[in-house]
């Protein structure tokens, strides 16, 4: 029988700050193409946990493995291209949508693939006519969608979304979930999503709750 290794996993993961234990010995794993939702009280350590997964913080103890390799042994830049982290209040730069979507290509010294960018825009209910729109003309929801697309111009293996739908209207939330489903289905993208939104929690594929530094799976059939 073939043993399937988790894509991303933690073993006895602990993080302490200012003398306080925020993450307390978490053992957890993510399978390839899985969509995981994490909820929990404010200040419970959800953002700390995913920032550890994204290698933006260093654990106090314990390990994080990606494809069975300790992430401390991996090149940080290469790892962050494979495990991408999206924040609640993204920063867009330049003047246009095009400049933002072209940025990942510039980092890799590759020509901008406009056809791919347009197809990506269509997954969030935008299109070719939006490429040259000025950033200042975008709504808050549109800015968030463009920022998320910037994370997936070169599709990572894991996308971490830290409360990115907070404050968005229902249409924008729907567009974000449409994008997640598209890249999850077409590109086997795994997703870790933090949210407090009741509707999103109802439709979560695999739901976890983080409280008191511990992560526990929630029985959604109760």
From TrEMBL:
- InterPro entries documented for this protein: AAA+_ATPase, ABC_transporter-like_ATP-bd, ABC_transporter-like_CS, ABC_transpr_CbiO/EcfA_su, P-loop_NTPase
Q: Where in the cell is it found?
A: Cell membrane
List UniProt keywords, sorted A-Z: ATP-binding, Cell inner membrane, Cell membrane, Membrane, Nucleotide-binding, Phosphate transport, Translocase, Transport
Name the PROSITE patterns for this protein.
Answer: ABC_TRANSPORTER_1, ABC_TRANSPORTER_2
Q: GO MF annotations for this entry? A: ATP binding; ATP hydrolysis activity; transmembrane transporter activity
For membrane topology, the record states:
Peripheral membrane protein
Q: What sequence ranges are listed for the domain ABC transporter?
A: 8-222
The protein's name: ABC transporter ATP-binding protein
Q: What is the protein's species of origin?
A: Fructilactobacillus florum DSM 22689 = JCM 16035
């Amino acid at each position: 029988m073939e043993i399937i290794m988790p894509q991303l996993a933690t073993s006895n993961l602990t993080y302490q700050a200012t003398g306080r234990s925020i993450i307390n010995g978490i053992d957890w794993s993510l399978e390839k193409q899985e969509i995981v939702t994490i909820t929990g009280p404010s200040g419970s350590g959800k953002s700390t946990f995913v920032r550890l997964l994204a290698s933006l913080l260093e654990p106090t103890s314990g390990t994080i493995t990606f494809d069975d390799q300790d992430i401390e042994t991996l090149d940080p830049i290469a790892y962050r291209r494979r495990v991408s982290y999206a924040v609640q209040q993204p920063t867009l730069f330049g003047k246009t949508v095009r400049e933002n979507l072209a940025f990942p290509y510039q980092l890799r010294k590759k020509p901008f693939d406009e056809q791919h960018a347009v197809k990506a825009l269509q997954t969030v209910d935008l299109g070719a006519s939006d490429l040259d729109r000025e950033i200042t003309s975008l709504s808050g929801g549109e800015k968030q969608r463009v920022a998320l697309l910037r994370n997936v111009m070169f599709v990572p293996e894991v996308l971490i979304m830290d409360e990115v739908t907070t404050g968005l209207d229902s249409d924008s939330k729907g567009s974000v979930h449409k994008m997640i489903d598209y890249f999850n289905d077409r590109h086997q993208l795994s997703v870790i999503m933090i949210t407090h939104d009741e509707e999103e929690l109802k439709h979560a594929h695999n739901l976890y709750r983080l409280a008191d530094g511990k992560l526990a799976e929630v029985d959604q059939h109760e």
